[in-house]
Specification:
There is one protein chain. By secondary structure, the chain is an all-alpha fold. The protein has one domain: Arp2/3 complex 21 kDa subunit ARPC3, CATH 1.10.1760. The chain is 82% helix and 0% strand. The model has no long low-confidence stretch (mean pLDDT 89). One of its GO terms (biological process) is cobalt ion transport. It is a multi-pass membrane protein. It is found in: Cell membrane. This is Cobalamin biosynthesis protein CbiM. Keywords: Cell membrane, Cobalamin biosynthesis, Cobalt, Cobalt transport, Ion transport, Membrane, Transmembrane, Transmembrane helix, Transport.
Length: 120
Amino acid sequence: MIFQAGLLAHGGFTTLGANTFSMAIAGSIVSYLIYKGLAKKNRTLAIFLAAAVGDLATYVVTSFQLALAYPSADGGVMASFIRFGMVFAVTQVPLAIIEGLLTNVIMNILDKYNTKEVEA
């Protein structure tokens, strides 16, 4: 988070709390709950959905945070939330799908070559 704030200018240090909540807390919790809920039924699907939906959850929370900070004059927070969400959806939906697929590939490689560590 500090790397993103300081070197990549993702909002700077003034938004570190908001970024920490959306990326490190909300996305992680959603991913964890999805994986735990589905892993015993279908591990591949659980990994895919945990990665993809966790990524999208981050941007839903970010859209809400931005909507609170910049409410629309003609529609309020909800109109801003929808607008920010639509802007993020253009890039984040394809990236979330790719992230879900790539996470499955990586987990399959880890399972194949590091079975003991993955089970632990």
